[in-house]
Amino acid sequence: MRTTRRLSIALLASLALNLFLGGMLTSQWIFADRKDRPHHVGRFDRQGARAAIDEQYRPAVDAVWQRHKAALRGRVRAVREVRRRLRQQLVAEELDQAALAQTYEELHARGLAARNLFGKPLAEIAAVLPAEERKRYFQAGFAKSGKRSGKRRPDRTF
């Protein structure tokens, strides 16, 4: 009886420890600053950048974004569609490794195409704005992308 009780206590302690550590890792991933994750690197704050420039230049900047809006939206929609397909493949009863690898490659290619297309409106905006306004626009737009939150150590991988 004593052995059974000790084993039960050890099992409960082990379960509690595992739940605690699992909760810590999960909360660190969920609540960590999102810009530190690889798919958010280089994020651009359009609204913050727009607010940083003088009002007379805003219509020109808005026009550039408007011209590229449909193409950007289409590329982002394509990435979301591939992600949805990937999720469906991962939860399917039969896991097809070849199809999964092909979907991962397609996700990478479409994501890269979307990021490459994003550079075109930025280059046009840089050409439209004078030097001082361009500096303010891009400093405000990329202000949050390079800073670390300080919540995690740089040597951590998860």
Quickly describe the structure.
The chain has 158 residues and is mainly α.
How would you portray this structure in words?
- The protein has 158 residues and is mainly α.
- The protein has one domain (2-141).
- The protein has helices at 2-31, 46-52, 58-91, 97-128, 131-141.
- Helix 3 (58-91) packs antiparallel against helix 4.
- The longest helix has 34 residues, at 58-91.
- It is elongated.
Largest sheet: none
Spatial gap, N to C terminus: 42 Å
Percent strand equals under 5%
The outline comes out as elongated
How confident overall, as mean pLDDT?
81
**How would you spell out the order of helices and strands?**
HHHHH
Number of domains: 1
Rg calc: 23 Å
Low-confidence stretches: 37-41
Number of strands: 0
Binned, the helix content reads over 70%
Number of helices: 5
Quaternary state reads single chain
The secondary structure category is mainly alpha
Give me the secondary-structure topology.
Layout: H1 2-31, H2 46-52, H3 58-91, H4 97-128, H5 131-141
Short descriptors:
158 residues, mainly alpha, 5 helices, elongated
